[in-house]
Design brief:
The structure holds two protein chains of two kinds.
Chain A lengths: L1 E10 L2 E11 L4 E5 L6 H8 L7 E6 L2 E2 L5 H7 L1 E3 L12 H8 L8 H5 L3 H20 L15 H13 L5 E5 L7 H16 L3 E5 L3 H7 L2 E6 L2 E6 L1 H5 L2 H8 L7
Parallel strand pairs in A: 3-8, 3-9, 6-7, 7-8
Antiparallel strand pairs in A: 1-2, 1-4, 4-5, 9-10
Helix pairs in contact in A: 3-5, 3-6, 5-6
Chain B lengths: L8 E2 L2 E2 L5 H22 L3 H25 L7 H19 L3 H23 L4 H21 L1 H4 L5 E2 L5 E2 L2 E2 L3 H23 L2 H11 L1 H5 L5 H27 L1 E2 L6 H14 L4 H17 L7 H15 L4 H28 L1
Helix pairs in contact in B: 1-7, 2-7, 2-10, 2-11, 2-12, 3-4, 3-5, 3-10, 4-10, 11-12
The chains are: A alpha/beta, B mainly alpha.
């Protein structure tokens, strides 16, 4: 579904990602792990078009998206969340999700201002669908609050709801469990399975090892911008390169 | 107000407070109030001032859409006010066209100018955008003053015919009031609807963070230009009506001072509230009129009053009064509670 081939990204000399090749198959939950600074978030930014890669190509559902703009990539069906939740602070919880429906609706300026039938019908649809997403993530009760008044865990849920509202084919989650407690992390696990059952493919960046091993079908490991391993959770756990990257090698003491 | 934020049951499911209706109810109330006002105050100073308030409110509500909701600070609304006024005056005087036709045509002219200018300057952000739009205002002002063959130069254009509807001339304060205020209220309703729709939400998102807004499929560049056009047409329509109401237009209409005055009104009424834009226009116009007793020192005292008000209500008058009101209310509730405990003791 998503294919990165030999993708590199240099930031003025710093090789954030070099020759990374991996793919995400339709319907799977793919993990992307690696120590800090391994290039995981850079990979996300490349996929969503925040900046173009220095080399290599990215294709999504048989279409090259390497040089596409973020808004075009969203319209193709890729949505994401952020390490630090980037919610719209002045909008309420509900409005944040309703915003996710933006490009799935088409009432223009005049239709919106004059409340023509098209706009009214769409607005009602947006409202109902957004409420459904909020219900799914258990935030419906808090829909009238301002988004930044939520605790961190709920802000992350809200980001997922907002991303889901764009009806993505592929959802990218950037460290969804960072800063969450065990209970919230377990909650997130269920949500991830629910999202997969909706038919959405997932690519998850995570540091929380137990979480990623339980959730993912397949994992790719990056270290210093280079892919060092790829496979099922079990293979990854026993892969020598991964153990080396995370724990270091044994040194012989003379 | 509680009445309108009460949960409504649809399909047996609680839909939550329909927050939109609060605005609509207020709108209805104000519209009725505004329409019966002339029959209470009668002819004279107040009616005349109210007419100007309607025109200024159109400009400030338009600017509020752009600045308060779109986050694009533009100091060009006096220029569009002047373009609207001059365009309709020139078309009317030179080509002897019907005022209503020329008003519509001049909106079209303004929209095209706004499109051209917007496409160029809206690439800029923040202070740079403000400076670019300010330059545009300066250019327009100079052009109006210098192109004497077209605009009458410093003398301006006079004896512009009033608007007429099939022989019915809108030439008195009363008649103009009943044209301008309903139109103004409709424009306010349009804005209220707009900010509470998919378009309004994306603009509020753009104001906060363009890069994230793009991730939701918004074509930022196009949207900003469209909003700029709508906002400028608000100002230009007010300018056209002004020209036909006063039957005279001079370069003062397009001056930088006027552009800055409009921004002050927004700062005063609150940038993020359409209602604030209207109430700011009303209160500052009256303040300005009452300060005439100070003659030459008028501007200085006007400025001082603004500084004081903005110091005390940094979020604008309306939000400030609301906060103050709720603070006062809390104080009162607390006070009665203390009083009752005292009684018990």
């Amino acid at each position: 579904m998503l294919q990165l081939s030999n993708v590199s990204k240099n930031f003025s000399g710093l090789k954030a990602l070099s020759d990374a090749t991996f793919d995400v198959k339709e319907g799977q939950i793919k993990g992307l792990i690696g120590p800090n600074g391994a290039g995981k978030t850079t990979a996300f930014n490349l996929i969503t078009g925040v900046f173009p890669p220095s080399r290599g190509t990215i294709t999504f559902v048989d279409k090259e998206i390497t040089q596409q703009k973020p808004e075009e990539i969203t319209r193709l069906g890729i949505s994401r969340t952020f390490q630090q939740p980037h919610l719209f602070k002045s909008l309420t919880v509900l409005e944040n999700v309703m915003l996710g429906r933006h490009y799935r609706t088409r009432a223009e300026f005049l239709a919106c201002g004059f409340r023509l039938r098209q706009a009214r019908r769409e607005e009602k649809q947006i409202y109902e669908q957004s409420l459904e997403y909020l219900n799914m993530l258990g935030l419906a009760e808090k829909r009238e609050r301002l988004a930044n008044k939520l605790p961190l865990g709920e802000q992350r849920f809200l980001e997922v709801a907002r991303a889901l509202a764009t009806e993505p084919k592929l959802l990218l989650l950037d460290e969804p469990t960072a800063g969450l407690n065990d209970q919230e992390t377990d909650g997130f696990k269920n949500i991830i399975f629910k999202i997969r059952d909706l038919g959405v493919t997932l690519l998850v960046i995570e540091h929380h090892m137990r979480f990623i091993m339980e959730v993912c079908d397949e994992i790719a490991v990056l270290n210093f911008g280079v892919k060092i391993a790829e496979g099922t959770p079990k293979e990854i756990q026993n892969h020598p390169n991964v153990i080396e990257a995370y724990l270091g090698t044994e040194e012989k003491i003379a | 107000m509680y009445l309108f934020s009460f949960p409504i049951c649809i399909d047996g499911q609680i839909m939550g407070p329909v927050f939109k209706d609060k605005n609509k109810a207020a709108w209805l109330l104000v519209t009725v109030g505004v329409l019966i006002l002339p029959f209470i105050v009668g002819k004279g100073f107040y009616l005349n001032t109210m007419n100007f308030i309607a025109l200024y409110s159109m400009v400030t509500v338009g600017l509020c859409l752009l600045v308060g909701y779109g986050g694009q600070l533009s100091i060009s609304h006096s220029a569009f006010f002047a373009i609207g006024g001059y365009a309709t005056a020139i078309l009317c005087l030179r080509f002897k066209l019907h005022p209503i036709v020329t008003i519509l045509m001049s909106q079209f002219v303004s929209a095209i100018v706004a499109w051209g200018i917007g496409a160029v300057v809206l690439r800029l952000k923040g202070h740079y955008l403000a400076i670019a739009t300010l330059s545009f205002t300066i250019i327009v002002e100079v052009l109006i003053k210098e192109m004497t063959w077209l605009t009458g130069g410093l003398q301006g254009l006079s004896s512009i015919p009033p608007i007429s509807l099939g022989g019915f001339k809108i030439d008195s304060d009363y008649r103009f009031y009943l044209l301008a205020w309903p139109l103004m209220m409709l424009m306010l309703l349009f804005s209220l609807n707009l900010v509470d729709s998919r378009m309004g939400r994306i603009f509020r998102a753009i104001k906060e963070d363009e890069d994230i807004a793009r991730l939701f499929g918004a074509d930022i560049k196009k949207y900003k230009i469209k909003l700029f056009i709508v906002s400028s047409v608000y100002a230009s329509l007010a300018g056209s009506l002004y020209a036909h109401f006063v039957t005279f237009i001079s370069p003062v209409a397009g001056s930088i001072m006027f552009a800055i005055d409009i921004i002050l009104v927004l700062a005063f009424g609150g940038f993020t509230l359409l209602w604030g834009a209207m109430i700011g226009a009303a209160s500052l116009t009256f303040l300005n009129e009452y300060l005439t007793v100070f003659a030459d020192y008028k501007r200085a005292i006007y400025g001082l009053a603004l500084v004081v008000i903005i110091l005390f209500f940094p979020n604008g008058l309306l939000l400030g009064l609301k906060d103050f009101g709720s603070y006062f209310l809390r104080l009162m509730v607390k006070g009665t509670r203390y009083a009752s405990t005292e009684q018990r003791v």
